[in-house]
Amino acid sequence: MLRLNLILLAAVLISALADVSINHRARKLVTSYEREQERMRALEVEWGQLQLEQSTWATHARIEEIARQRLGMHTPRTNQIITANP
Question: To 5 degrees, how large is the angle CA 20–CA 21–CA 23?
Fold first, then answer.
């Protein structure tokens, strides 16, 4: 009878330790998951800001201004336009 009690006590202790270990690991995984969710939200905000910045840099008015100022380009006069017929 004593032997059976010791075996049952060992089984209960092992089960309790396994439960504590599993709960600890689950909490660590939840914490890690929440940290990655926050990182994902921060990256989404940054992506939105980058898209806005790209659209600002690529506006037609800005490109035309750079072409005129830096490259010295201008709109051709009507006598300078040549059309190609297929």
Answer: 65
Please tell me what DSSP assigns to residue 70: T
Q: What's the domain count of the chain?
A: 1
Residue 8: Cβ-neighbour burial (10 angstroms; 0-12, 13-18, 19+) = exposed
Q: 38-47 pLDDT, tens per residue? A: 999 999 999 9
Whether the predicted model's global pTM rises above the 0.90 cut: no
Is 38 among the domain residues? Answer: yes
Domain span including residue 27: 22-56
Is residue 31, in this structure, part of any structural domain at all?
A: yes
Query: Would you say residue 71 lies in a domain?
Result: no
Q: Quote the Cα angle for 37-43-44, to 5°.
A: 90
